[in-house]
Give the backbone structure.
Amino acid sequence: MIQIKEYKNQFMNILFASSEAHPLIKTGGLADVSGSLPPALRQLRQDCRLILPGYPVAIEKAGDLKVVAELEFPGYSGPARILEGLLPGTRVPLYLVDAPLYFNRAGDPYRASNGHDWQDNHQRFALFSLAIASLAMDQAGLDWKPDILHCNDWQTGLAPALIHDRHDRPVSIFTIHNLAYQGLFPLHAFHELSLPQHLWAPHYMEFHGHFSFIKGGLVFADHITTVSKTYAEEIRSQEYGYGLEGLLEYRKDNLSGILNGIDTRTWNPEKDKYLEANYSLDDLGGKQQNKLAIQRAMGLQENADIPLVSHIGRMVEQKGVDLILHAMRTLLERRSIQLAMLGSGEKHFEQHALQLQADYPGSVGVHIGYSEQLAHLIEAGADLFLMPSRFEPCGLNQMYSLRYGTPPVVRRTGGLADTIVDTTPETLAAGRANGFSFDLPHVDELIACTERALDCLTDKNCHDSLIYNGMSQDFSWERSAREYLDLYRQLM
Ligand code: ADP
């Protein structure tokens, strides 16, 4: 009994490796997780530290940094300096791998301004993984040894492979945030990396004639997690597995799902600095002012009575942007409604969205680009939030929507299935309904589901229940961090 108690209170050293973290650099949900989970683990009194590539914008935003190590890796140009500081706004120690030849480039971490991947991404993220492995094995002279190495997505996938046969290595965990991104490179790239030859094998890191970074994590990590329980099951099927379903099925006893949290300080309608008016469950008055502000900002007719449907996200097939645009064209013909859309991505989706705006002036507002401010205002001001994703490992926007009293309309997949309870007479009566969901990624299903949601908006009892149920849910990082901590403890 005493032994168990001591074990449960044990502090752990955790090295959290990621290629992006809010507020230093962000292209998607991975940055939200990496910016939130390490501070939440520190709140739980664990010594969690974060390691990131030293992109110029990350170095600039990190502020005070000091050089704590200089690492040399054969085959790479110049030393990789380890800069130490703090993740802004937190007490999380931060290590930035400063290797200018590889990371000192403006803009996107993965792509050049022409939209093509950087030609040397394999070298860039192999170097990053080598640095992670050095810190993981306490070989960087920092006098700090992690018990847990927690890697995230393909950019860190090589690290578990590099340490798997080392004595006294930390327990390794690899989290899949999106299996669609695997870090696949041709054979010559593998040769350029001077890695142990045995890694080029189908049961290791070869994948149909390519070198797969993500397989490093999937094959060699002691445990694999993904960001929702449903996605952890889905990726073991052909439909969602991208050819890795066999491997994931094989590792199913070491594969589990932990739902992401959301940053409840940034995403808090009571204090959100981006809003026109703050509001809470006790006083929802401000929501309408935000709606009027959004209508003004996006060139929509200013009228609080017209239902405002919204979407924020990357304009890619995964998110079902095509389904939204087709469904909205039909719905705009049938009903007096409005659409506010924010995002950027594939050019044809952007053009299609702008065309819809041109066809329905005053009813459709489209903003192509990235805007935190507009994202917050839309979550607050809209009446419904559409998320008809073809797959969705976790999804954050549906949770923001719940917290902002904006019922989500989602496809039942991945994290959307795990967070949204469809509105039926039964779920309403049980006080569980918080949104609307449908099964197949078809336009007709999205239209029918959105119609149900629009009908609910006009039924005070239904609408109030959904707002109450959504706004009172707990999606804090503390809940997720406790689940990760339990897992770390089990693995040790
Ligand atoms: P994914 O990681 O697949 O892009 P998520 O829903 O998990 O999707 O997370 C997306 C994050 O990026 C959310 O925080 C969302 O608000 C934000 N986001 C996406 N596109 C934009 C945009 N154009 N402007 C502002 N925020 C955006």
Remarks:
- The mean pLDDT is 95.
- The pocket of adenosine-5'-diphosphate is lined by residues 28-29, 32, 312-314, 342-344, 370-372, 375, 394-397 (CB under 6 Å).
- The first strand starts at residue 13 and ends at 17.
- The two ends are 18 Å apart (CA to CA).
